[in-house]
Design goal:
single chain, 116 residues, mainly beta, Jelly Rolls, six-stranded antiparallel sheet, 1 helix, 3% helix, globular
């Protein structure tokens, strides 16, 4: 599939999965210079290790449940919940069951869309 840059409609079934770690895979969705959308699936017990980046992030939990760490805080969130991460704040997740989420980043996560 060609680039999803500035794509108005994105049929994600046509986008290949990228391995993002043990039990974690992702598909980069539509993006432009100001934002990026990313679908991420986790097998039960998979970890999105604590990390930081200079982007603001809003995440929507599509289904399943996660233990979410943002800074020094931890909460269990499930399908339909959102969380917000300011730029440069350490954060990570642990999937408590097979789960999926959608990340929205601003500005664009160039490291994720490189080569797309």
């Amino acid at each position: 599939m060609d680039s999803l840059k500035e794509r108005r409609f994105a049929h994600m079934a046509d986008v290949a999965w990228d391995a993002a770690g043990d039990g974690v895979r992702r598909k980069v969705g539509p993006y432009d210079e100001t934002m990026t959308a990313v679908l991420v699936e986790f097998d039960r017990g998979s970890v999105g290790y604590v990390h930081t980046h200079p982007h603001h992030q809003i995440t929507y939990i599509r289904h399943g449940s996660f233990e979410v760490t943002i800074g020094e805080e931890k909460q269990v969130l499930g399908g339909g919940d959102f969380y917000y991460i300011p730029a440069d704040v350490p954060h990570g997740v642990v999937a408590l069951e097979d789960s999926a989420l959608v990340d929205f980043f601003s500005p664009c996560r160039l490291d994720l869309v490189k080569g797309k």
